[in-house]
Amino acid sequence: MDLVIGIGNTLRGDDGLASVLVNQRTWDDDCRSLVVQQLTPELSDLLKDVDRVLFADASIDSREVRLERIASAEARGIGHAISPASLLAWTQRLFERVPEAWLLAIPGQSFEIGAPIGPVARGFLSEAGRRLDAWRSRSPLPRVVVGE
Q: Within a domain: residue 27?
């Protein structure tokens, strides 16, 4: 089974991009979805039971939609400090296994409290949707960018 996790706060402008992406999709029995404001160690309990996970998140550091494989990586801290890679490390530590993991980064520009998603950032949702659909269908992924 696959799991798609949309990360972001819909009350902080472009930070809500992944929530919109995940909530506008239809899901089948082979793929679960979840929208969260932030990653927490408790999500390891879900990751232990899936074959693949895709984390979708708004990115202030990107100018294009990126889809890349990620691996577990130790990091200090929890709460806002926990990244997809450190969540994978928690899962490995607790359950001695991790799913194949991917990060879908969607460019964002404005993360102000109370702001709506901006038109430039909203324009990236269709490309993000295409990459998500390709990932779900296990089709060859368009222009996978690794280590940018």
A: yes
CB 88 within 8 A of CB 73: yes
**Mind listing the pLDDT tens digit for each residue in 65-106?**
999 999 988 766 555 568 999 999 999 999 999 999 999 999
Check which CATH number belongs to the domain holding 96 and give it: 3.40.50.1450
The span from the CA of 128 to the CA of 20, in Å, is 11
Q: Which H/E stretch holds residue 106? A: strand 100-107
Domain that holds residue 127: 2-137
CA distance 63 to 41: 29
Report the domain count for the chain: 1
Contact 8, 16 (CB under 8 A): yes
CB 15 within 8 A of CB 108: yes
Q: Is residue 144 part of a domain?
A: no
The CA distance from 111 to 48, in Å, is 32
